[in-house]
Design a protein that fits this description.
Elements: H1 10-18, E1 21-27, H2 34-43, H3 53-60, H4 65-75, H5 82-98, E2 101-109, H6 110-113, H7 119-137, E3 140-148, H8 155-167, E4 173-177, H9 189-197, E5 201-206, H10 212-220, E6 226-229, H11 237-246, E7 250-252, H12 254-259, H13 271-276, E8 281-283, H14 295-304, H15 309-322, H16 327-343
Parallel strand pairs: 1-2, 2-3, 3-4, 4-5, 5-6, 6-7, 7-8
Helix pairs in contact: 1-14, 5-7, 8-9, 15-16
């Protein structure tokens, strides 16, 4: 679901474009553009079953959740060589820099990686992408490989892979993603216990296509420090009280919620209600290439729903505070945010 910025005041668009942003929930593969996957498929002599880039782009466009999973699974088959990850990582750095996203924490679909590559080889490729991307574009990105729920049997291999990358300074945490239905958090306790013992931060997708029970499981069974999505926490008053008291961050991705039907088209996004209840919410793009969105467009969406630029700015400060960045990175990003605050003349709000 794409939101038009053209009917927003130019001053607001300018403020969003120049605002240093923090993003805590974005998938590397889901942020990779259709043309990049198509180019890689051509290079690797992989048949996507289409006759042209245009046909592939049409197929790539979001239709429903089932189709989304089909596209995602097919697209990543184009990542056949270690250097393909180097390429999409450097492309990701470029895309984040273009939006002035100065700090990101991004998921990598590790369950698929470990089935295709030897750990040392793919870690070398990932490290090269990180080095090239950070040097060229000057933004900081920390990566969180995740277990794909539907691939339960990969979980221990994934956590071993993540620990090796963590030792090399490439990863900061362990996540879990993919379809919630049929794959509750309790299936992944051993992997998360091992990850925690190794010093990894822990995050979990929950409360998106499944309700509060999934969030409780992520918190109690897995020890998740942040919840990816979590919008369905509103269905459980006790859960809201718990999340508010503990100030456990929710990684909210509005366009994703609309696209998947978690929030109905035309309805106000529940992030306002969550914030009013005292929850700690951050703004994210999830799978922007596949949802035809971007982090900037998430901001435009919320501006049209009555948020002010100052509120969006404050959520960046909040996101930085709950990020897994080291103290020196947090200080550097905070300086960028404060410089922006001083240079921007007025934080404006609109009434549409």
């Amino acid at each position: 679901m794409q939101f038009d910025r053209n009917n927003l005041p130019s001053a607001l668009v300018d403020q969003v474009n120049h605002m240093p942003k923090i993003e805590l929930h974005v998938h590397l593969e889901g942020a990779t553009q259709a043309q990049v996957f198509y180019n890689l498929a051509q290079k690797n002599k992989l048949d996507f079953g289409v006759k042209s880039l245009e046909e592939w782009q049409s197929f790539f466009a979001f239709k429903n959740f089932g189709h989304f999973l089909k596209v995602y699974t097919l697209a990543i088959t184009a990542l056949k060589k270690p250097e393909d990850y180097t390429y999409i990582i450097t492309e990701f750095y470029r895309q984040q820099a273009e939006q002035n996203i100065v700090y990101s924490e991004a998921f990598i679909s590790a369950s698929f990686i470990i089935q295709k590559f030897e750990t040392p080889t793919i870690l070398d490729a990932i490290e090269k992408g990180i080095q090239e991307g950070s040097e060229k574009y000057g933004v900081k990105i920390n990566f969180i490989p995740d277990i794909s729920r539907e691939l339960v049997d990969t979980q221990m291999a994934v956590v071993d892979f993540v620990i090796e990358g963590y030792k090399r300074g490439l990863f900061i945490g362990l996540g879990i993603g993919g379809p919630e239905r049929g794959f509750p958090p309790e299936l992944f306790i051993k992997a998360f216990e091992k990850g925690k013992k190794a010093g990894l931060h822990l995050v979990a997708h929950a409360g998106e296509t499944e309700g509060p029970k999934s969030i409780w499981g992520a918190l109690n069974a897995l020890g998740a420090e942040r919840i990816g999505h979590g919008v369905r926490s509103l269905e459980d008053a006790k859960l809201i009280d718990f999340l508010t008291t503990k100030q456990i961050p929710l990684e909210i991705s509005p366009s994703s919620n609309y696209a998947l039907g978690i929030v109905k088209s035309g309805e106000m996004h529940p992030i306002r209600k969550l914030l009013d209840l005292g929850l700690n919410c951050t703004i994210n793009s999830d799978d922007p290439a596949m949802f035809s969105s971007s982090l900037s467009q998430e901001y435009f969406l919320l501006l049209k729903q009555g948020f002010s630029c100052s509120e969006l700015y404050q959520m960046n400060l909040n996101a930085l505070a709950v990020s897994f960045a080291n103290p020196s990175t947090k200080l550097d990003v905070q300086k960028q945010l404060k410089t922006y605050e001083k240079e921007r003349i007025v934080f404006e709000s609109i009434d549409i």
